[in-house]
Amino acid sequence: MTEFVKTELDSGVLTVTLARPDKKNAISNDMYGALADAVERAEKDPAIRAVVFQGDGDSFTAGNDMADFAAQSKDPTIMSHVHRLLKDLAGSTKPLIAAVQGNAVGIGTTMLLHCDLVYVAPSARLITPFVNIALVPEAASTHLLPARIGYARAYAMFAFGEPVDGATAVSIGLANALVPAEELRAKAREAALKLAKRPGGSLSHTKALMRNAEAIGAQMDREGALLKERLKSAEAREAFAAFAERRQPDFSKIAG
Ligand code: COA
Description:
By secondary structure, the chain is α/β, with parallel strands linked by helices. It has a domain at about 5-180: 2-enoyl-CoA Hydratase, Chain A, domain 1 (Alpha-Beta Complex). Helix content is about 45%, strand content about 15%. The strands form two sheets. It has a six-stranded mixed β-sheet with strand order 1-2-3-4-6-9, sandwiched between helices. The chain has a three-stranded mixed β-sheet with strand order 5-7-8. A hairpin with a 2-residue loop joins strand 1 and strand 2. It is globular and about 60 Å long. Coenzyme A binds near residues 64 and 65.
């Protein structure tokens, strides 16, 4: 159990809130576990007809907790719940909706590729900095992102790790609509309530037909195997040390 992920079920909508605002909602292993539990609960419970993901504070999430990454790079036996969450997202048949303000880093962006509706505030900054920290992308984003926004844009997002703002996210098809920050949660909830009244069986078949869950799962496995390798690399260790020491990493002396 963690107090950093809150869930609330109301009128058929399960709202899942990342609630660690002082750390920009960085996701620790316990939080991945709670998120996976919530997605599994939604899948099993017929009373849950839609799920909304949102984050407290000024960020959606700063992505994977960097201290956890550093610990995993030193001890590869640590089991992360992230893989369970990713598989749950890949296989989810319920409508998933995201309300994104501020930073959406790493999985904060890649999980949006598994959401069916994404609403962003103008402050949204979608960042996939896996190469910045010497890792590889996850969540099947190496297939899903280029499929969504084209190879050229996807490669630039991965290779440079530069943020995409809310308006751009909408214009390139990464999000459905730009919504003023003060209306963001209401907009996501309104969409969820609307979907909750639609024929659930029809919606879940439609979603299953639109997504190749098997191929997505297989790509996640390929990425996951490489990520495990990368976590042990000298490059990644330098990146995590640099984050902890609040300095820029220096990869220049490390052979590729
Ligand atoms: N893991 C753990 N802690 C994190 C974190 C992360 N991913 N991201 C931010 N934090 C913590 C910071 O260490 C800081 O903690 P402190 O107040 O105890 O020092 C606090 O959250 C606020 O972060 P700060 O960097 O001061 O906020 P900012 O507004 O200047 O920048 C980010 C926000 C998200 C751009 C920046 O924190 C960042 O780049 N984080 C790392 C993101 C990342 O690479 N994630 C992995 C993706 S694969």
